[in-house]
């Protein structure tokens, strides 16, 4: 097992032979009488390292996210575990690396729940400590016991069974059926006369598909990428659904609806410690923001979706302020994987984004094992407790579980969340040293980073994904990069430092065995 490391900050904690959790709690008690801050985890979908202005974007402006960053810590080496959604979310919830478990890749919209219900999860940790917990937004971790399920009845297990008191979600991705909201165990706006059915194997019902009726589409799918099955709201989806005409959402209402539900939860729980996992869908495809954002960025619908995301973040921050709870609320802002421009629809992202580098200086993007795949915006703010700063500490979303366990002094049973390291001191800005080692997961490859050195295992998979225009990082020979000097992974130093390659390959093998 990878041990939960205790990271000592030599400067601040030199003589203290105490664990980080104790020191951090003492620190919190001194500066804030309320030792149980509310925690909001705002999670964007496919937002890249270079998509936020405080991280280098110039073509798109994100004043609200920037304000959050300026009020807290902007991490320059913050990571999701994986370059796609489901595995990163799995890690965030469980504190385990997803590649240890089969079936944690991108899930179809009818998948069964993949999070164990009998283990510690991030929401359970808070719930067991007396917090009220909620998820609002994208789930993408499966629902129910099996793929076959009755979408018109109670659907469980799901978010509630893994620790959320309240759940308002859509099941998978915005481009996958069923395009419905679920509140707790039920699809909302069900109609017994028009039952919902979902199928990922073959067409059901008589709804037109994007493949047969492209003339009905308001957003064309990209050639060769699918997204041409059941049409909902003028957009071809992955998967087939029939029925539930009244329950189907319009893409333009997703963000305002999620925001309203998140705000309701915050208002109702303002006098009580709460944990909110607010999982937005921007800028994932299909990018179809509320009408008032369309055309606003000048960068096409992807840019518009980023403006909508920024607006939603601003609304939450304003609400915290107006309720007078911003000083008692820790906000994490991050993304589930790196950026992609053409991910299945002809929405002008590629054409209009010329000059905008969604991964910033990093190489690769969504799907890749290169830094662009898993190094993403990572911001933590807790006004009055966290001192504003930019931190180079290497931190991962998989660490939130153990770190928040330390923050609220909740023990983690042995065997649970074993990949989650307690890096609370780094998350609170008391040290700029985070993890010493991190494993990064591309679509079909792993890399390990230690002390600024990154090793990518040799892999015969494609080096470039032509349809999405992304370098995967796959190469049939070993790759070694010095990220401190070469964050863009331009110079493969494997031939020059064979000992380093051997050391990191051995470490990665050992971590995989655990
Ligand atoms: C891919 C989809 C892509 C997106 C992704 C999931 C194709 C060709 N592409 O398989 O459009 O839906 O899955 O994205 O089907 S994620 O952010 O949820 O991982
Ligand atoms: Ca994603």
UniProtKB/TrEMBL annotation:
Family (UniProt): Belongs to the sulfatase family.
CDD domains, A to Z: ARS_like (cd16143)
InterPro entries named in the record: Alkaline_phosphatase_core_sf (IPR017850), GAG_Ulvan_Degrading_Sulfatases (IPR052701), Sulfatase_CS (IPR024607), Sulfatase_N (IPR000917)
Keyword Magnesium applies: no
GO MF terms held by the record: hydrolase activity
Keyword list, A-Z: Hydrolase, Signal
UniProt-listed PANTHER family: N-ACETYLGALACTOSAMINE-6-O-SULFATASE, SULFATASE
Domain Sulfatase N-terminal: 37-408
One Pfam family here: Sulfatase
Species this chain originates from: Mucilaginibacter gossypiicola
Signal peptide: 1-26
Protein name per its UniProtKB record: Arylsulfatase A
